[in-house]
Design brief:
- The protein is α/β, with parallel strands linked by helices and 370 residues long.
- 39% of the residues lie in helices and 14% in strands.
- It has a single domain, classed as Rossmann fold, CATH 3.40.50.
- The protein has 18 helices and 7 strands.
- It has a 7-stranded mixed beta sheet with strand order 2-1-3-4-5-7-6, sandwiched between helices.
- The chain is globular and about 55 Å long.
Length: 370
């Protein structure tokens, strides 16, 4: 009997493509195969979404799903993994949900192994962007995709697409993946803020200390699981059995309050700036000579690597789930509340490995390129 192949799907981001932007990632994955000679990797990416990324997450996801079923799947495929950068993380999410719904036999025959996103706006970009950007997104300046990332509802009833995408049909199949990993930029990412790419719940106090931003008495930790040394894979079972929760004051400090000192520090991790991102692309900072002459002097890239579970999430406010649409009005959810709801739904019954990295500008693209 011939060996089953492990299909790895690479998915690009907004105004990007597979053949150029994901090439380095493909090369590194094939290099890793030398350590696993018994694994037959087949790395593919859907190229027809290039120059179409403004047409919406649904459009992109359906195209990717049909590509997998019609052109890649056959009896030789035994495993599948998904790796998406930026918007690609949401595109692959919709594709997974679409395949599970329309082709229910697929995940019965093919074992899902890795779900990986790199700097993906899983919660949208509604909270961190300036008002003029929010208005532009709402008006469709970057098409349907921008409206969906801004959590605008209307195209799919009274709920944003990202809310609908976090429903049980997706969560049930995501839970079957052996590993779920989120890579997020701590700073220098002007496109996707840390809270969105990491599904919101993180040990932000520890991150601030790593970044040298803790200049006064530290806030209560937002989350306190076992700390694993940098570079080592956290032990899933150890963290999953940790029943320690977090107190409400810690959560309020980060996500809800607007005036205390801790919140001002957290803004460093929350805010995104498209203008700064464009500037860093055009005028990328060059490394100094010591970067090349003394590799040991380089700043550690990975500054946070932990596994988070639903058990560790703070309790929601009593009114959080009253209404679900992201519109103005007393009975409607604010976009910030909607992001919290979506994040909680993504954590339901699952653990997530969250890796936060510290990269030079432009970190949003540097996370996947050579």
């Amino acid at each position: 009997m011939s060996q089953k192949s492990h299909l790895v799907i690479l998915t690009h981001g907004f105004q990007s493509n597979v053949s150029a932007d994901m090439e380095y990632l493909m090369e590194e994955i094939y290099k890793a195969q030398m350590n696993n000679p018994n694994e037959r990797l087949v790395i593919k990416g859907y190229m027809k979404n290039a120059c179409e990324t403004e047409k919406g997450i649904k459009f992109l996801g359906v195209g990717l799903a049909n590509y997998i079923i019609d052109e890649l799947y056959d009896d030789s495929v035994g495993k599948i993994s998904f790796i998406g950068h930026s918007l690609g993380g949401l595109t692959q999410t919709f594709a997974i949900c679409y395949i599970k719904t329309k082709y229910p036999y697929f995940f019965k025959k093919v074992e899902p192994i890795n779900f990986i996103s790199l700097a993906s706006p899983l919660l949208g970009i509604a909270t961190s962007t300036p008002n003029y950007v929010k208005m532009s997104l709402s008006m469709g300046i970057i098409g349907t995709t921008g409206q969906e990332l801004g959590l605008k509802d209307g195209n799919y009833g009274d709920k944003p697409l990202l809310y609908l995408l976090s429903e049980e049909s997706l969560i049930s199949v995501l839970a079957r993946f052996k590993r779920r990993t989120l890579y997020a930029n701590a700073v220098n990412d002007g496109i996707v803020p840390l809270y969105s790419s990491s599904l919101l719940f993180l040990d932000y106090s520890q991150l601030l200390q790593k970044l040298g931003g803790q200049t006064t008495a530290p806030c209560d930790p937002l989350f306190q699981p076992e700390v694993s040394p940098i570079g080592e894979l956290p032990n899933h079972s150890d963290v999953a059995n940790d029943d320690d929760g977090i107190n409400a004051s810690s959560w309020n400090t980060f996500w809800k309050s607007k005036e205390n000192n801790c919140d001002k520090k957290f803004k460093r991790l929350m805010n995104a700036s498209v203008i700064k991102s464009m500037k860093s692309v055009l005028l990328s900072p060059c490394p100094d000579a010591k970067f090349f002459s003394d590799p040991d002097a380089r700043v550690a890239t990975i500054i946070h690597d932990k596994i988070y579970t639903e058990k560790n999430l703070p309790p929601p406010s009593p009114t959080l789930y009253e209404g679900t649409a992201a519109k103005e009005g007393e009975t409607r959810k604010t976009r910030k509340e909607m992001e919290e709801i979506i994040a909680r739904r993504w954590h339901k019954g699952m653990h997530w490995r969250k890796v936060v990295v510290l990269l030079k500008p432009d970190a949003h693209n540097n996370i996947i390129v050579r």
